[in-house]
Amino acid sequence: MLTARANLFIAERRLLAIFLASLLSLLLVSPSLPADRSEDKKTRRDDSQRSDDDTVKLHSDLVVVNLIVTDANGQYAHGLAVKDFSVIEDGAAQTVNALISEEAPFAAAILIDMSGSMDYKFGLVRAAAASFIDHIRDNDQVAVYGFNNKIKMFQDFSDLHDISEYVWDAKAEDMTRLYDCADEAIVALEKRPEKRRAILLISDGWDTSSQKATFDSVMKKSLADGVTIYTIDLIDDGARMGSSSDIAGLRRGQNEMKEFASQTGGRYVHSPQGDKLEEAFINIVEELRNQYTLTYYSSNQKRDGRWRKLNVSASRPGLMTRSRKGYWAPKS
């Protein structure tokens, strides 16, 4: 009995000694606590820096550039990689984030002028639009709009190969709300998941009755959203000779269609008799299929809404590129 009590006493003394030794150890290292706080501060700074970096990434805007690359014979150039492209934004080299070179689905909106002057050309335009839709793939999406005094969506985005019967029943009459129709189509394309987005604009005149959009606003919105505009001009050259206000309007319309195509990386097609329409539409389908799509995060973090000039080139000799000329930066 005494032996058991003695053992218990010894065990308690040992526990007490361990406790006192631990306490003494803590007291001896207490002068280093400020250094530990310094480490805490450094950790907090690191966490803060990571938070700032995350904020920068969240506020960085991905720039999408669709481009066509052709060789000296005008044939599409395939097999290019990220290293083959150079992207310059406002004179500063950018780092390409990703490149899509394979055939990818596209979303396109066909805008058909239905003003009174289109009457005898309307049948050709509808046939060409039907041919375009007939050549799309199952995962491509095409919508069809018509515009005169009103804007009508004849067909919402679909991969159906049959053009809506409403297009065939439409009549050419009244004035021309070209800008408003383009604006509506761009808004619809902006909501599409496809990175390759295009407008096919067919007209024989110029805007005469838009109520909210302008040439500048349509251009700005299309460049901001990466929408490529292809324009098909159906006016005879002779109709633009003279000095009347209507003739001046026709010349302005032609210049604007050329500018839409040039600035967004599309193409301008002049077909006074409408005989190039079907060929042009089929070529545009092929072009959309053979685009490269590259993306990058701009090194310019300012969200100032300013114009940024783009120059995208291919490093291999003899290759030509065509893409949008720039874009307006987002604005906070």
* CATH superfamily caption of the largest domain: von Willebrand factor, type A domain
State the total count of DSSP E strands: 14
What is the structural class? alpha/beta
CATH topology of the largest domain: Rossmann fold
Task: Give the termini separation.
Answer: 85 Å
Low-confidence parts, pLDDT < 50 over ≥5 residues? Answer: 4-9, 15-59
Count of individual domains: 3
Enumerate how many helices there are, as a single number: 8
Sheet having the most strands: 6 strands, mixed
Layout: helices, strands, pairs:
Layout: H1 2-29, H2 33-59, E1 62-70, E2 85-89, E3 92-94, E4 96-100, E5 106-113, H3 122-134, E6 141-147, E7 151-158, H4 165-169, H5 178-190, E8 196-203, H6 215-224, E9 227-233, H7 245-264, E10 268-270, H8 277-289, E11 292-297, E12 307-314, E13 320-322, E14 326-328
Parallel strand pairs: 5-6, 5-8, 8-9, 9-10
Antiparallel strand pairs: 1-11, 1-13, 2-3, 2-12, 4-11, 6-7, 12-14
List the keywords:
332 residues, alpha/beta, Rossmann fold, six-stranded mixed beta sheet, 14 strands
Structural commentary:
By secondary structure, the chain is α/β, with parallel strands linked by helices. It has 3 domains: 2-56; 60-102 and 292-328; 106-289, von Willebrand factor, type A domain (Rossmann fold, 3-Layer(aba) Sandwich), CATH 3.40.50. Helix content is 39%, strand content 25%. The chain has helices spanning 2-29, 33-59, 122-134, 165-169, 178-190, 215-224, 245-264, 277-289; strands at residues 62-70, 85-89, 92-94, 96-100, 106-113, 141-147, 151-158, 196-203, 227-233, 268-270, 292-297, 307-314, 320-322, 326-328. The longest helix is centred in the first third of the chain and has 28 residues, at 2-29. It starts with a helix and ends with a strand.
